[in-house]
Each structure stands twice: as C-alpha cells, then as structure tokens.
TrEMBL record, chain A:
Organism (species): Ruegeria sediminis
InterPro entries given in the database record: ATP_PRibTrfase_cat, ATP_PRibTrfase_HisG
Catalytic activity line of the entry: 1-(5-phospho-beta-D-ribosyl)-ATP + diphosphate = 5-phospho-alpha-D-ribose 1-diphosphate + ATP
Pathway: Amino-acid biosynthesis; L-histidine biosynthesis; L-histidine from 5-phospho-alpha-D-ribose 1-diphosphate: step 1/9
Stored Pfam families: HisG (PF01634)
PANTHER family: ATP PHOSPHORIBOSYLTRANSFERASE (PTHR21403:SF8), ATP PHOSPHORIBOSYLTRANSFERASE ATP-PRTASE (PTHR21403)
Keywords recorded for this protein, A-Z: Amino-acid biosynthesis, Glycosyltransferase, Histidine biosynthesis, Transferase
Keyword DNA-binding attributed: no
Protein name from the UniProt record: ATP phosphoribosyltransferase
Function: Catalyzes the condensation of ATP and 5-phosphoribose 1-diphosphate to form N'-(5'-phosphoribosyl)-ATP (PR-ATP). Has a crucial role in the pathway because the rate of histidine biosynthesis seems to be controlled primarily by regulation of HisG enzymatic activity.
GO molecular function: ATP phosphoribosyltransferase activity
EC number: 2.4.2.17
CDD domains attached to this UniProt entry: PBP2_HisGL3 (cd13593)
UniProtKB/TrEMBL annotation, chain B:
Gene Ontology MF terms: glycosyltransferase activity
Keyword set includes Transferase: yes
Protein name as annotated: Histidine--tRNA ligase
Signal peptide residue numbers: none
C-alpha cells in the first residue's frame, strides 16, 4: 500500500497544484501519453499520485479511497454533509479563488439584499403563480443559506453549466454560482446581492479522516506534512 | 435500530387505542406527488424529505408525514365529522445528525369536526396523553392563533401585516421585519439610495428576465408607500414582545395574556378560545394546573399549525426528538381543499422512541 494523493486531472488546477508542491520540494509528474491519467511523485517515498476530476475528490476523500486530495472548499462543503467529520483542511493553496454568490438581473434596481430578494419572491409568486427560480448546481449550500436568511418562496432549478444564461433564457429569475472576477456576470447583465456571498472558496489540500493509515502511510504523511511547514 | 417487530406491535396497539376512540383506520401511499409538498413547504422540504422521480409521473417524495395525504383524502370524499387513525413509516432525510432515524413508524389520530374545536383539541391531547401514561414525559403546549390574531389586528398597513404573517414561522425574520416596521432598525443604505432617486428605473442596464419592468415599478412604489407610513407604535411592539415571552402553566399564561390584551385587544377572541380549551382539557381530566404553555411554542418546526400546538418530551433524554407532537391546522384544509375547508386537529406518536425510553428505564 502507499499514501494516495488525489490531484485534479486537468488544466490550470492541475498545473498550479503541481507548482505548489514543487515549491515545497515535492515533484509531481504525469507519465505516459498526454491522455493517460497516470503520474509519479518524487521527493517523498511511498506516495502515489491519483489524477481525478476535482468534483470527485470530495467523495473519494470521504470514502477513504485517497488519503490526501486537492479540491475547492465549495465542492467539499456542497458534497459532504458534516464535512468537518470526514476531512481535515491541511492548507489553503492560494489559487482557484472563487466566491459562491447569489446574483439577480442588474435591472432589478429595487433588489440589493436578501431581504429585497425575499420580498420580490413573494410578489413574483403571486403574479406568476410559481416560485422565483434560482439556477444553481450547489443545491445544498444555497438552500441552507437562503433558509437560514429567512428567504421564502424560491425554488432551485438545476443548472450544471452556462448558469448565467438561464436568466435571459427565462428558465430562472436569479442564479447562485461560482465567480472569480465577475466578468461573466456583468456580460450577462447580472449583479451580486450585497449580502449574497455564500462562501469564499479556494483550492485546498485536504486529509481524509476515514482512510486507513498503516505505519508506512503514516510515515509518508508525516514526511509530506514536514515539508509543508 | 429498535426491534422492528416490537415497534410494529406497539404501533398496532396504539392504533387500536385510537380506533376505540372512534377513529377509522386509513392508509396512504408511500410515494406522494412532490408538487403538493413543495407548494406547501417550499424548497426547504427537499432538505427534509427524499425526492425521487420517474419519466411519467415526475417528482415524487417518500411520505415525510401522513397529515397532508390524510387531509387530501378527507377533503376529496370524507363525511363529516370524521376521525382517522393510521400507523406506518415516514421518511426524513437527515443531513446534520446521523443519529436521527431517517425512517420511522408514526401512529396518528386526526379529527375533522366543525362543532366544537376546543373539545376536539382536548380530545386529541388527552388521547395521546393517555397513550403515553407511565413514560414520564413533559408536555409543552402553545397556540399560534394568539400571535396570528395579534399581528392581524396591528394598526398598520395591510402590506406590513401580510409580510409579518408570511414570516410568522421564521422567528428571526419576523423579528427583523418588526424592527423595521417599528422604526427601530436603520434603513439599509441601498434602500435609502433607491428612495432618494427620483426615477430609479431610468438606467441604461438592459432588461433581462421574466420579472417585468412593471413589477419592479410596483415594488418601488410599495417601498415609497412603506417609507411614508407611520411606524408600528411602541405600545403595540411592547405588547407583542410581552406576548411572545409568556411561558407559564396554562391558567397563569391565560391570565398574563389577558393583561396583554389591554394593549392588544385583537387577541381577545383567540384568548376566549384558549380559555375554552383549558376548560375542555380539564373536563377530560387533564391536569391543566401543571401543564406548560409557551406563547412562542411551535413557531419553528411546525409550519402548518395555526392554533393549538403541543409536544411531549423525554426530559431525561434531551437528545431525542419529541415523542409525540400535534396541533390544529385549519388553514391546511383550506389550502388543500380547493375552496372547501374544515377545522382539523391531530397528533402523532413515535412508538420506536417510546420503546427506547421504556427500555432505558427498565
């Protein structure tokens, strides 16, 4: 057995994760062809690299199939109920920053806060006979945030991509999605509610609390943690 | 998990207890159309119930309680008055506490009767109380109807009253609205800026979405009207404050609330109902002198109740949810009745928890 380290398998997240480890004297490399998801770890013994979709890393950590994993705070909080009991945050990595926010059309000049959104939802439901729809893929986080804030008469509709476009297409009245620069929101004539930031997320290194740590894995883990200090 | 056979046996005995009191046994499907429940409870229900679907019938929910389907059944073709009992599994998603059961048996008793609501309240409470004799539970009661009457009679705009009524089950939101309508909370800067603009709709932002310009203009007008309205008086606010803090044994609570009615006379009719209920409970042999009444009881988790509410708790097991709960839900029959309505009250027991307490005591 070896200590399994899960890293996002694609694009900038993978490159930046590799660079972050490099800074700490641990070299991660992909092996084989460009399309093959295999890798290699130099600098600590007994660690194997597992390349995975960032969205699957929370689940794999919770199941204990990987010991360490890099993924966003947003995905861990959304996918793992009571995440503190399943994973431990080891280090924020300082990249992949994004906020999970609630945005409404910029033309809603009367809506700037959650309080306004609640009042608008009530009137909207009366007028249109259905609840005000919010498009998102973060169902649990958004539902709990809005319920906690006392917003009623909303409905969440699932949107796995191009969420900002749902308002113009009239399949939703508002959205809850990840944004880093706000560029896409502005381009789609949306604005963020003043108190509508649900979560500030960034790429983070997590440790699974459920994985099995035999002496060799424990040793490798300690070696990695030493490097990070 | 409790021994299932034992739980079912106790459930059957409890149902027998309700049948002897005149209830007809009733069955409901486990799969319920999700739309009705979503309409009633909002998006929130998705966090508490299991949702599944098929291509033909769309979204279905695993029955999170019996009350809604029993009310629907009665409103469709029930004769009056009616008494029903049922026993069966309900399913509740648990996302915060894995120790709480996500599937358990409920036994219930529901009364649909126009004649004498106070007597029906007392009947349900007394029957459930009898079933729980010997379990050493603490009973708590309340009455959402008193708070509702207080809000509906406030000397303020209809729009404000509607907003307060809409959030009566969300205490924090209710409080925030009350502070604003009472002039105690500062106007948020964004709102102040909006109201200070002579033509806020004159922007170069392109219009998108289904919420129309007319709706935005309507809300701005409503906000202007609200800003011009007098704040709710300190006298009324203080009355509401006192009302919400009442927490005493039933007869003293009534006395205390009668004092509140000097400032909030609109609650008098609701208090007469409370008094009639106390008499009816006494007539059923309930020791009302030691029965707790909390004016804010049932404001969080019991969204369809709009009058009498109650719960039974194992004091030595604060980790357990209530062993029994119930209350009056006249408004629910109105919402599910397509124009028809009937006063209704009911309650449910948890036989699995009863066995757990008994076992621990033995």
């Amino acid at each position: 057995m070896s200590l399994k380290l899960g890293v996002p398998s694609k694009g900038r997240l993978m490159e930046k994760s590799f660079a972050w480890f490099e800074k700490h004297g641990i070299t991660l490399t992909r092996t084989g062809s460009d399309r093959e998801y295999a890798g290699h770890v130099d600098g600590v013994d007994g660690v194997s690299l597992v390349l995975l979709s960032a969205g699957e890393i929370p689940r794999e950590l919770a199941a204990g199939r990987i010991h360490l994993g890099i993924t966003g705070t947003d995905l861990v909080h959304e996918k793992l109920p009571r995440w503190e009991q399943q994973v431990e945050e080891i280090a924020p990595l300082g990249f992949g920053q994004a906020d999970l926010i609630i945005a409404v059309p910029a033309c809603w000049v009367d809506v700037d806060t959650l309080d306004d959104l609640d009042a608008a939802s009530s009137a909207f439901r009366e007028r249109h006979g259905h609840r005000l729809r919010i498009a998102t893929k973060y169902h649990r986080l958004v539902r709990e945030f809005l319920t906690d804030a006392g917003v009623a008469d909303f409905a969440l509709v699932d949107s796995q991509g191009a969420t900002e476009g749902t308002v113009k297409n009239e399949t939703a009245e508002a959205i809850a999605d990840i944004t880093s620069t706000g560029e896409t929101l502005r381009a789609n004539h949306l604005k963020i509610l003043g108190d509508g930031v649900i979560l500030k997320s960034q790429a983070t290194l997590w440790r699974s609390r459920t994985a099995v740590y035999e002496p060799p894995e424990k040793q490798s883990l300690d070696a990695i943690l030493d490097r990070l200090e | 998990m409790r021994n299932r056979a034992e739980t079912l046996e106790l459930a059957a005995r409890l149902r027998g207890h309700f049948e002897r009191a005149g209830a007809a046994p009733v069955e409901t499907p486990i799969l319920q159309p999700a739309e009705t429940l979503l309409d009633l409870y909002g998006e929130n229900i998705r966090g508490r119930a299991y949702v599944t679907s098929d291509a033909l019938r769309g979204e279905q929910m695993l029955r999170p309680d019996f009350t809604v389907p029993v009310v629907q059944k009665h409103m469709e073709h029930g004769a009056e008055p009616a008494r029903y009992t049922y026993a069966g599994e309900v399913f509740r998603r648990q996302e915060h506490d894995s120790d709480r059961a996500n599937e358990y048996v409920q036994v219930g008793y529901e009364v649909f009767d126009r004649e004498n609501p106070a007597a029906a309240d007392a009947e349900v409470f007394a029957l459930i109380s009898q079933a729980l004799e010997g379990y050493q539970l603490r009973a708590a009661t309340g009455d959402i109807g008193v708070l509702m009457a207080a809000v509906q009679g406030l000397r303020t705009t209809e729009r404000r009253k509607a907003a307060l009524m809409r959030h009566i089950w969300r205490p924090r939101r209710f409080r925030a609205l009350l502070d604003r309508f009472g002039g105690r909370a500062k106007t948020p800067p964004t709102r102040a800026a909006l109201l200070a603009t002579s033509d806020p709709m004159a922007t170069d932002v392109p219009f998108v979405g289904k919420r129309s310009n007319a709706e935005i203009a309507d809300r701005i007008e409503a906000l202007r009207a609200d800003a011009a309205a007098e704040p709710i008086s300190d006298n009324e606010l203080a009355g509401l404050e006192t009302l919400l803090s009442v927490r005493e044994t039933m007869p003293f609570a009534l006395e205390h609330l009668r004092d509140v009615a000097v400032d909030l006379p609109q609650i008098t009719v609701a208090l007469d109902r409370l008094e009639a209920r106390i008499d009816a409970l006494q007539a059923r042999g309930v020791d009302v002198g030691s029965l707790d009444f909390e004016a804010s009881y049932g404001r969080t988790s019991m969204e369809y109740y709009d009058g009498f509410v109650f719960g039974f708790y194992a004091e030595r097991r604060p980790d357990l949810p209530p062993i029994a709960t119930g209350g009056r839900y006249d408004a629910l029959t109105r919402r599910l009745g397509n124009g028809a309505e009937i006063p209704a009250v009911g309650g449910v027991l948890r036989p699995d928890l009863m066995l757990e307490i008994k076992e621990a005591a033995a």
